[in-house]
Design goal:
Elements: E1 27-32, E2 37-42, E3 55-59, E4 61-63, E5 67-72, E6 77-85, E7 90-97, E8 106-109, E9 113-121, E10 124-129, H1 135-142, H2 159-162, E11 170-173, H3 185-193, E12 197-203, E13 226-230, H4 232-244, E14 248-251, H5 253-261, E15 271-275, E16 290-294, H6 301-310, H7 312-324, E17 335-339
Parallel strand pairs: 1-17, 3-12, 3-14, 4-11, 14-16
Antiparallel strand pairs: 1-2, 5-6, 5-8, 6-7, 7-10, 8-9, 9-10, 12-13, 13-15, 16-17
Length: 349
């Protein structure tokens, strides 16, 4: 398989640069990988597609204000995007500057946050932060919401709330698990009333999610590792769902990757870990049986993942239909509910 197999043309005007007034106001493209059908629906209809005993698995990561702007001691402008908070005093960051800083250089952000370059780690830097506060405290006061580059705008006050799920609770992500942005309290209550259960995983989405696939041969691509955690309560919820004949639906590709990563040994396990799982067509899913997701970038690893789940040819048709029908794309855009292709599930589980 080649990266170019997952390309498509997207008119710029279909990129949703701002969210709709209501979280649940988006459209919903229903894609049935088994039947090979595509249907235009509304997100407000979501409970109609579930039955009592089904399980929705949400990613409860919380987006941190991971973007910092400032100056080097020499006076040159510099911008940092935190990839991962390592501990209370240190973080791994991507740095944009006219010249890469060397270890020992002091960088000051927002005229208040002094950091020391400790070392270079691949294409990132390990920074030590002023110990007067924790890294998360510095970011909360002086950082910006790290909107994706394809939005082509700076963060605004409204993004503090809207680029965050209503159930976010574990800080650490530098990008939102965007399928969850459609849910408000009323929708969660409607699903509960319909007998649909909920469970949570945590996957702290890294800045690597914005990085393009730079190779044509997919075998040469390496994913950035991300931290995830599967609570025992979620493990038990999945087991109950299977015993009762319900279906496990991942809310977003991040929830899916956490669940599938925790089942790489053949059995879903509770606990914490790191994942660099790269899912492409041919992968057989061990845990997830349905997927709610947004529309993804051309040539991206996430488009490859959904193609593995719903079927590559059907997903090409679905994306062409979405473009022709004026769907809104990417983080603040519309949603898809995907039923798996016949050969996508590991039927031995």
């Amino acid at each position: 398989m080649k990266t170019s197999d997952f390309d498509y043309h997207l008119p710029d005007e279909l990129i949703a640069r701002y969210p709709l007034a209501e979280r649940g106001g988006s459209r919903l493209l229903r894609v049935d990988g088994d039947a090979g059908t595509i249907a235009d629906r509304r997100f407000a209809e979501l409970p109609d597609f579930f039955r009592a005993g089904d399980l929705l698995v949400f990613n409860d990561t919380r987006v941190i204000k991971a973007r910092l702007r400032g100056l080097k001691d020499s006076g040159g402008k510099i911008e940092a995007l935190v990839e991962r908070v390592l501990n209370e005093r240190e973080a791994l960051v991507f740095i944009r500057a006219s010249k890469a800083p060397k270890p020992g250089v002091v960088l000051t952000f927002a005229e208040a946050v002094r950091t020391l370059v400790l070392e270079r780690v691949g294409d990132m830097f390990r920074l030590g932060f002023d110990p007067a506060r924790t890294v998360l405290e510095w970011l909360e006061e002086y950082g910006e919401v790290p909107l994706p580059p394809y939005l082509s705008r700076g963060a605004e006050t409204s993004d503090d709330a809207r680029y965050q799920t209503v159930y976010a609770r574990d800080p650490g992500a530098v990008a939102a698990p965007t399928a969850g942005l459609h849910f408000d309290a009323a929708m969660l209550e409607r699903l509960r009333d319909a007998g649909v259960a909920s469970a949570f995983v945590t996957l702290h989405v890294g800045a690597g999610t914005f990085q393009p696939v730079r190779v044509e041969d997919l075998l040469e691509h390496r994913m950035h590792a991300e931290r995830y955690a599967i609570p025992r309560a979620t493990l038990e919820a999945v087991a109950r769902t299977r015993e009762s004949g319900g279906r496990v639906c991942a809310v977003g590709t991040t929830s899916l990757r956490a669940l599938e990563s925790a089942a790489r040994g053949g059995e879903l396990l509770a606990g914490e870990g790191e994942t660099d799982l790269f899912i492409t067509p041919g992968y057989q899913f061990k845990v997830v049986e349905r997927l709610l997701t947004n529309f993804h970038l051309p040539r991206s690893t996430l488009l490859m993942l959904v193609s593995a789940f719903g079927g590559a040819e059907l997903m090409r048709r679905a994306y062409a239909h979405a473009v022709a029908s004026g769907y809104r794309f990417f983080s603040y855009g519309d949603a898809m509910l995907i039923e798996p292709a016949p050969d996508a599930l590991d039927r031995t589980k």
